[in-house]
Design a protein that fits this description.
It is a single chain. The chain has 15 helices and 19 strands. Helix 6 links the parallel strand 6 (131-136) and strand 7. The chain has 422 residues and is an alpha/beta fold. The radius of gyration is 24 Å and the shape is globular. Helix 10 packs antiparallel against helix 15. It has three domains: 3-112, HUPs (Rossmann fold, 3-Layer(aba) Sandwich); 130-248, Rossmann fold (3-Layer(aba) Sandwich); 253-380, Dihydrodipicolinate Reductase, domain 2 (2-Layer Sandwich), CATH 3.30.360.10. Strands 13-14-15-12-16-17-18-19 form an eight-stranded mixed sheet, covered by helices on one side. Strands 8-7-6-9-10-11 form a six-stranded parallel sheet, sandwiched between helices. The protein has helices spanning 15-26, 38-43, 53-61, 77-84, 118-123, 139-149, 165-174, 184-188, 202-211, 226-238, 248-251, 253-263, 289-298, 386-398, 408-421; strands at residues 3-8, 30-36, 68-72, 89-93, 108-112, 131-136, 155-161, 179-181, 193-196, 215-218, 243-245, 270-277, 303-313, 316-326, 330-336, 345-349, 352-356, 365-370, 374-378. Helices cover 34% and strands 27% of the residues.
Length: 422
Amino acid sequence: MKVVITYGTYDLFHTGHYNILKRAKERGDYLIVGVTSDAYDKARGKLNVKQSLSERIENVKKTGLADKIIVEEYMGQKIDDIIKYNVDEFVLGSDWLGKFDYLKEYCKVTYLERTKGVSSTQLRNENYGILKMGYVGNVENSKNIIQESKYVSGLEITKSFSLNEEKAIQVFEENMLESYTTNYLDFLNGIDAVYISKIANQYDYIKTALENKKHILFERNNNLTENEIYELYNLAKKNNLILFEAITTIYSPGFSRLSSMLKAGTIGKIKSMDITYSRIENDINDSLVYPLMAISKIMEAEYLSVDKFDVVEKNKITYRKINIKFKNSIASLQVTKNMKLNDEITIIGTSGYVIVEKPWWKTEVYTVYNEEKTRKYSFDFDEEGIRYELSDFLNTITTNDNYQKIFESESKFVSKVMEEIK
């Protein structure tokens, strides 16, 4: 008897789920289906799951395809299950291609082509619906962004756009999307929202999408001016649309908690913030976006002056230090392209201080030292962290609640400082 096993969340069960189960069943004599528990989904960063475990198990049971249904509760359980049930073949959709190759040591691993476009067609008429999103940007970042979107139930990236047809096709094929195009207006048809990465003419792309009533999640490039930010936010408000800036650090659980604690006065009034950042970017100005946004969340709203110091080698800036003076405090940041920095944040207040450990932009561990006691905090930061901002973006669109964590004033702060130092 050939035993086949597969796993999934099976939230808002649709034809794509059914087709994978049917084809998995056809590959053997006995099909075991693992359904992820609520706790495991949360622990692995699977966000916005709408249905309970019992409902999701019932979804699978109703198909009549599963000979046995088990609950997946912890990392590494797949190996234990394969050994326990003498599994011959592990099957999963091709959108996870390569992710589970480590299981080949225990059984055959097969990735089945997923059913493109079925989930959105099926679920649009359901109570929860699904947000269809398009991707605009480079090939290199697309895989991470689209892969992370699979952890956010209720959202699906379906289209790719690039003026370069070869690149548009590459994103489309590598991520198994529904379609691609080199015509931006055609691209905007049939989707609800757009993810725009760091690209040239970013302002024009965002503005056109907003004018065509699309919600926007964007990774800013370093050329967006304060006036452009102002115009884009006003256009979004005018059209009752959501405009989110994509800085994964700000949407991560650890940084959100840190920011709230500091604003609540955990270390008193903040007097200084030192931040170092050696994450490699093509342009050193791109490297300033993350630390500047972190400063905007923690320090005062208005600054008095900005001073900079550069180290230039072979006509290129390899190190930059910036001091930002506020009325009652100061922030210093250092960025580099070829030198090692400690990549930590130190924040000093009137009654204590905080150290955010390396790499601070993931904000997994930080320690609060104050007059009462010393306490260390630890948080999970899953993969690239993109799922957190995607989840908050989706929830802000589909509910009456506001999950926005980067505000217009903070976005304008970053642009204003960038304009000054250039």
